[in-house]
Structures are given as structure tokens and as C-alpha cells.
Amino acid sequence: MFGLANPDRFLRFTRPLTPVAWGVAVVLLAIGVWLSFTAPEDYQQGDTVRIMFVHVPAASLGLMAYGALGVSSFFALVFRHPLADAAARAAALPGAAFTALALITGSLWGKPMWGAWWAWGDARLMSVLILFLFYIGYMALRASIDDETKAARAAAVLGLVGLINLPIVKFSVDWWNTLHQPASLLRMGGPSMSEVFLAPLLTMMAAYAALFLAVWLTSIRTEIVRRRVLTLRARKALEA
Q: Under 8 Å CB-to-CB from 172, ≥6 apart: which residues?
């Protein structure tokens, strides 16, 4: 891992890996969509159960992406390595997109199931909303400071603070009474849902994970090139 912290090594290692990740993501998404539409209706939820195949993976990836952002921020802040900062920055936008998708599909699912688009008193809803705001705050903070070094440090601190919210999101359904049901996948005794819904759900979760990896690697590679171009321009300006 520390060997890949070298930008040149990282670029060489991820050059063949990135298109593979994109290919795996496309294939898994195609299979997942097909399984989602061919799955039977739920006896209680009907066709609205299919929203689960978009909502649950999006929520999971929102947490995973922020975990990547937070860990990268730690290495950027402690070891001050530019590649770690690039990784944190690259995780922010896709993570925010996945979290926004989780909030939107959650509202679409909540209306027929709960009778309301949103419940301000629900701990899971509010903690995911706070997660989205951390993403927005991270990107806004970086954009608001002209000095890129200062912006990276300030954003890294915010990224680390936001890690506190991850266990709150995960265990909110266990710690408080919420409209959300308890965990159905990661629980003692194994998954509680039927196999006809489990297969498309797990496939879509794998597809989202591959998609995030593909986007993340592509964004990090682009960020490395962008910084090298800026450095080259600065050197030419000094020479001039």
C-alpha cells in the first residue's frame, strides 16, 4: 500500500486495473438490473420493493465512500502525502452522488410504505442527511480556499470529523426507535430476506462497489495529472 503511495507507481499499477473495473461495473450493473426486474413482487410492497435494489446499495456505497475519504484524509493530514489528499478529494463527489441517490430513492420508497416522503424524527434519515452535508461541506471548503495546501488540510480535518457519523448511520436503527427496519443483511444468524430478493440486491451492491472503484481510480489518476500540469505551469511562469 505504501509502495503505491508513489504517484508514478500508482499510475502504472492502475493503468490496466481501471478499465477492468469499468468493465466489471458495466457487466454487474446489467446483470443486477435484469435480476431486479425479473424478481417477483413482494406480497406486501408489490413492485415498490424494486426500489430496494437501488436504494440499499446507494446507501452502503455512500458510507463506504466516506470511509475511503476519511481514511485518505487521515494519511494526508498525518503523513502529508499528496496522493492521499488526491484520493480523499476524488472520493467526495461520487460519495455525495451515491448518498443523494440513497436519500431520493428512500423518499420514493417511504411515501408508499410510510405514507410520508420524509420523517424529521427518524434517526437513520437524519444521520444520512448529515452524511450528505459532510460531503457538501468537504467540497465547499476545498473550493472556498484559494491556497490548495491550506484547503487540503482544512478539508482533511472536516473529513476526519465526519467519520464519527458513520457508526451513527449504521447503528441508528438499533440505538433508537426508527421507521427503518433493523439490518437485514449484516446480522447475527445471516440475512433475513428471501433468496429471490437477496440475489439481485447483492449483485447490485457488487456493481455499485465496482462502479465506485472505477470512478475513484479514474478521478485519482485525473487529479494526479491535473496537479502535475499545474506544477509545470508554475515552473514555466517562474522561469519566464
A: 123, 124, 127, 178, 180
End-to-end CA distance of the chain: 39
**106 contacts 59 by C-beta, under 8 angstroms:** yes
Residue 161 C-alpha cell reads as 470529523
Element (H, E) at 76: helix 52-79
- Strands of the chain, DSSP E: none
**185: amino acid identity, one letter:** L
The model's pLDDT over 120-154, given as tens digits with 9 standing for 90+, comes to 777 888 899 999 999 999 999 999 998 888 999 99
| 10 grid coordinates | 500508482
Residue-wise over 161-174: b if at least 16 C-beta within 10 A, else e?
ebbebbebbbebbe
- Helix 52-79 with 82-114: angle, nearest 10 deg: 150
pLDDT value at 170 more than 90: no
Tracing cell 433493523 back to the chain, one arrives at 182
